UniProtKB/TrEMBL annotation:
Residue ranges of coiled coil: 174-201
Entry keywords, A to Z: Coiled coil, Signal
Domain of life, source organism: Bacteria
Protein name: Uncharacterized protein
Residues making up the signal peptide according to the UniProt record: 1-19
Length: 352
């Protein structure tokens, strides 16, 4: 990784004492930091583990924030608003146009009032207790038009069938969007659950190292601290150097499964990042296909508005994708893991 890229990353970090420590760490290879340790080679795997845990926690926090992607998700949700024309058509305009032949046959119905009621249903958006526009608005409109047909003898079944056939094509777009968004939200919820599980694993791994190196703190008491606090209080480099120098040969050997645990954390994080990318890519592809499918609705489609919406969706997805790679720092995590493997191997060789 070039110094220019490192400098750019450092510019994004808060100017706290912890960040300043990380700046020193990031500007030099891991092997240099470990070699500078004043303690014996036996403490270096613990130091390398602390570096790795710090990178893993930063990456996990970044991924948790990326999953929210508020701008993208808000835009996708907005497409499913029946009062909007972002899909290339105005649902209210199409509804009123399709309803006009029926209203022209009525005698006892106040047509202006009836049209106003339908407009209120659409502009009111989703009705309480429904999954979305297609789940709440369409049945309500069907009910109103059906009641109208019963009262007005001149309105025939063929008139109602024609109305439902035309409007069903428009409502189908909303139903597809709602299905895609529901699936998307379920996938994101599952991903968030796995991120929480990984956070628990990182915490347990950190506590394992702390209880091994520090004989004093009880495990139950450590669970009341954040991972950041544990790293700063018990696994900061000066603290570990001091312990290594004082303990000498009596320092507990680095656990035999320590590297495996670190690899599991790193591997899980990368898998979750890959899953996150797939969830958003699949959703983007599906939403784009649904919007593009609106062209088949015919001349009533506003092609300019539809193209604008597609372009906005593309830009949001591409911009967020570029930010993801920068924020997650997966490469940094891999460098920390390699440094840990090297330090653990040297400690094992030195203990023979």
């Amino acid at each position: 990784m070039s110094l220019r890229i490192l400098a750019f990353i450092l510019a994004l970090m808060p100017a706290t004492s912890r960040a300043q420590g990380l700046q020193t760490m990031l500007l030099l290879p891991d092997s240099v930091h470990l070699a500078r340790s004043s303690a014996s080679v036996q403490i270096r795997p613990y130091v390398a583990s602390a570096y790795l845990l710090d990178a893993a926690l930063n990456s996990l926090n970044s991924l948790s924030s990326l999953v929210k992607k508020e701008n993208y998700r808000n835009r996708v949700t907005a497409f499913n608003n029946p009062a909007s024309a972002d899909m290339g058509f105005s649902l209210e305009a199409e509804l009123q146009a399709s309803l006009r032949p029926i209203l022209e046959k009525t005698r006892s119905t106040n047509t202006d009032k009836f049209s106003g009621v339908l407009s209120s249903i659409i502009n009111g958006g989703r009705t309480p207790g429904t999954a979305g526009p297609a789940g709440g608005i369409f049945p309500a409109i069907i009910s109103l038009v059906g009641d109208l047909a019963v009262r007005e003898k001149r309105v025939e079944r063929a008139d109602v069938d024609s109305f439902l056939q035309v409007m069903g094509r428009y409502f189908a777009q909303y139903e597809k969007l709602q299905t895609a968004n529901n699936r998307f939200e379920e996938q994101v919820a599952r991903l968030n659950g796995r991120l929480q599980e990984l956070h628990f694993d990182i915490r347990e791994y950190t506590i394992d190292l702390v209880t091994l190196v520090h004989r004093g703190p009880a495990r139950a008491g450590l669970r009341g601290k954040t991972i950041e606090e544990l790293l700063l209080l018990y696994l900061d480099v000066p603290v570990l150097d001091s312990i290594g120098a004082a303990a000498g040969p009596a320092l507990p050997a680095y656990p035999t499964d320590g590297v495996k645990g670190a690899k599991d954390i790193s591997s899980t994080l990368q898998k979750l990042f890959g899953e996150y990318q797939k969830i958003y890519k699949d959703n983007y592809t599906e939403i784009r296909a649904i919007l593009s499918g609106g062209r088949s609705l015919g001349k009533s489609i506003n092609a300019t508005q539809l193209e604008t919406s597609l372009r906005e969706l593309d830009e949001l997805y591409q911009e967020s994708g570029k930010a993801d790679v920068l924020n997650l720092r997966v490469q940094t995590l891999q460098e920390r893991l390699r440094a840990l493997v090297t330090a653990e191997g040297a400690a094992r060789a030195g203990g023979r």
